[in-house]
Amino acid sequence: xxxxxxDASPRTGAMLDDILSFIRTHRCYHHHIFEDWxxxxxxxxxxxxxxxxxxxxxxxxxxxxxxxxxxxxxGFDEQSRLLREIVxxxxxxxxxxxxxxxxxxxxxxxxxxxxxxxxxxAVEAKLRECSDRLLSxxxxxxxxxxxxxxxxxxxxxxxxxxxxxxxATIRNLGTAxxxxxxxxxxxxxxxxxxxxxxxxYGASMDEPEMHYLLEHYGEIGAEQQHEKNAIEAxxxxxxxxxxxxxxEGARDFLDxxxxxxxxxxxxxxxxxxxxxxxxxx
Length: 281
Ligand SMILES: [Fe+2]
Ligand SMILES: [Fe+2]
Hints:
Blueprint: H1 2-7, H2 10-25, H3 33-40, H4 44-61, H5 67-73, H6 77-89, H7 93-109, H8 120-135, H9 149-156, H10 166-197, H11 211-216, H12 222-235, H13 242-270
Bound molecules: fe (ii) ion (2 copies).
């Protein structure tokens, strides 16, 4: 990473530093949701509800939409290649996240709630059921998608990937760098902390059901490479005109994810406000 910055002009280096430090000092980047998860040790229904919101958010971050093509159309071929590499490496992560979530729900329940961890649709339907039971009374909860308003807003930031305009494409680079830095340094380590290190679920990184986490975590994990790619893609497009747009894209991502973490943390992990509704399923 440092060699990329070393090659840049001092002005570009300073703009990159501003962006990286904006992301690193944002509250979202240090959110206590995963510590609270590890401390509270939520029950199986709560775990399912958390995973329902989280997996829907994560699913929205994987597709590239028109973003890689829009970069090429603007003459940013190398940036397009770097982004395409990230998108391609996301292949198969949806089913693996479902497997891990179902496995953790089973461990939290101390019985088999999700009987076939390879059946993504069945696991996700269970997670949805948990979410409906705990969250359906919060304002704006979607009866159709089972999503909180905050989840929908965090997802909507990625709709920008279908806007091919120059400004949107540069903003999308900012969203990408914030996403990859948060994934690599907060989200994935946070999941490891609450799912594995907490000892709550007797889960370990070498269990096949936990492959999602192994694949994403640490020095050789997918997120490390994604972060590197995203920084490399940004550094060569930074100038006085693009830097504010990159910052805007990063801010949209961080602010919306911060609100999502606040919601899940306050309703599901701290206040105990959510009480299960009778299950009519
Ligand atoms: Fe992934
Ligand atoms: Fe990533």
